[in-house]
């Protein structure tokens, strides 16, 4: 019996190390990606188009003109913060109040104070305590209307504002969320294009207008009634990781989050425009996601990450396999092909769901750089994995229960 088992195992290993297995794996990988495109991707694209936002929204289309309270936490900001506030002063909306909690350094405070000349601006001095505390300080100056929460590095315009408040004013929604897009001056940078197609949530998850529980930190609106019911919505102790973890609390109180689909509803914000900035931001976001104490299905998430971690190690090591086993190296190459085809699917998805007037073309050089960007992401996954292993004892909150 043991001899038969050894023979079977040896046969399997020989097959896995054969040219036939390489050919079968290659065909399966290509077929898998093609099938995903014609089933999953096409379906997701259709749903997005079925839920299209209004083509145009004007101020006169609103049923009434409620007070909009724009709240901005600003900590150690610079030129982008000033550009953000300038963009708000150019808005045509007639009933607007802006509340800024600024701190961290003199430059940030000086920029904020320079806008005191506008009667509808309220400037607060922010003390150390985190973003959520700063937002809470802003909320203390609000007693009615719509609250528009944005980051200090975004650019707001009339169209984005109207698209965000329209569902609240005309469709009796309570919370709206929109995504982000890069600043116009960044649109032709390859790493920015990569982030734009790679962070497209609706490529992974079929769009649901009110089925998502996440909320966009840089671009979200809610009626004052939401804050009245939730009360401690911005409690630091509840939101240690990221803006997006505020959403589940809103959802738990019975409020649906109304997501916009149109690219024109996405707010302009600074995207990482160098590999270093991208690497650091992506690392922070992934670490926050994995260590979020309120994350559901922890075991499933960690198993998925562990598999990704091991595959990334294999992919990064595969070029060295060339020196002693070419088939192992070819398997790594096929893994790379699979990831590359997935990126191509993301590009097609983005182009099919976004009007071409809103983005720069993806040139030949970008498609060549895709391989490099894939390797950067694999390095990031491995680095994150080792960081988690090293820091696990120091971070009891990520312990699987």
């Amino acid at each position: 019996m043991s001899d038969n088992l050894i023979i079977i195992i040896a046969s399997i290993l020989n097959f896995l190390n054969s040219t036939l297995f390489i050919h079968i794996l290659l065909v399966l990988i290509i077929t898998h990606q093609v099938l995903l495109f014609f089933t999953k991707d096409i379906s997701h694209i259709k749903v997005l188009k079925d839920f299209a936002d209004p083509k145009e929204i004007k101020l006169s289309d609103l049923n009434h003109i409620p007070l909009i309270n724009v709240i901005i936490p600003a900590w150690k900001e610079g030129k982008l913060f000033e550009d953000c506030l300038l963009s708000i002063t150019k808005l045509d909306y007639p009933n607007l109040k802006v509340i800024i909690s600024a701190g961290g350094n003199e430059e940030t405070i000086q920029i904020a104070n320079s806008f005191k000349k506008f009667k509808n601006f309220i400037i607060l001095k922010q003390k150390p305590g985190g973003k959520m505390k700063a937002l809470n300080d802003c909320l203390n100056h609000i007693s009615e209307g719509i609250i528009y929460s944005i980051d200090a590095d975004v650019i707001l315009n009339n169209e984005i504002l109207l698209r965000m408040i329209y569902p609240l004013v005309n469709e009796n929604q309570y919370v709206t969320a929109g995504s982000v897009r890069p600043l116009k001056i960044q649109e032709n940078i390859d790493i920015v294009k990569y982030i734009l197609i790679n962070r497209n949530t609706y490529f992974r998850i079929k769009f649901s207008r009110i089925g998502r529980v996440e909320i966009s930190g840089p671009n979200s609106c809610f009626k004052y009634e939401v804050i009245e019911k939730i009360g401690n919505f911005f409690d630091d102790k509840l939101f240690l990781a990221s803006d997006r973890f505020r959403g589940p609390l809103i959802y738990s109180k019975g409020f649906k989050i109304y997501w916009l689909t149109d690219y024109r509803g996405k707010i302009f914000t600074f995207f990482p425009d160098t590999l270093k900035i991208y690497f650091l931001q992506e690392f922070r976001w992934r670490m926050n996601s994995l260590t979020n104490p309120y994350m559901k299905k922890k075991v499933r998430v960690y198993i998925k990450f562990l598999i990704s971690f091991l595959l990334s190690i294999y992919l990064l090591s595969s070029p060295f396999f060339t020196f002693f086993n070419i088939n192992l190296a070819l398997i790594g190459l096929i893994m790379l092909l699979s990831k590359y085809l997935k990126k191509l699917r993301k590009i097609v998805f983005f182009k099919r769901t976004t009007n071409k007037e809103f983005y720069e073309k993806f040139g030949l050089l970008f498609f060549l750089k895709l391989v490099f960007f894939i390797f950067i992401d694999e390095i990031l996954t491995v680095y994150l994995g080792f960081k988690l292993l090293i820091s696990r004892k120091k971070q009891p909150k990520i312990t699987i229960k």
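Residues 277-398 form one domain. The chain has a mean pLDDT of 87.
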